[in-house]
């Protein structure tokens, strides 16, 4: 059984928030099966396990700006002392859905 099969599916949407000091919680996180119910805001989206191709990374990040958001499987993590504003909550994606 893979680690990925135990990770929850999420939808990530850029919420438009921008900050002067990182980390900035500019993504909203939703369970994939409850897309209208916001779970929390997160600071970073790590897609490095999904692809290292810059074009694909850009396309995936653009999907987070869409009304539907970016649907993926991953785990939440904390990156300590991510910037002057403190720790960052990071969604580490393992697979993109759709």
Descriptive tags:
98 residues, mainly beta, single chain, six-stranded mixed sheet, 6 strands
Output mean pLDDT.
Answer: 91
Order of helices and strands: EEEEHEE
Uncertain spans, ≥5 residues at pLDDT below 50? none
General form: globular
* Sheet with the most strands: spatial strand order: 3-2-1-5-6-4
Query: What's the end-to-end separation, in Å?
Result: 22 Å
Q: What fraction of the residues are assigned to beta strands by DSSP?
A: 35-45%
Query: How much helicity do the residues have?
Result: 10-25%
User: How many E strands?
Assistant: 6
Major sheet: 6 strands, mixed
Rg, rounded, reads 13 Å
Structural class of the secondary elements? mainly beta
Q: What count of helical segments does DSSP give?
A: 1
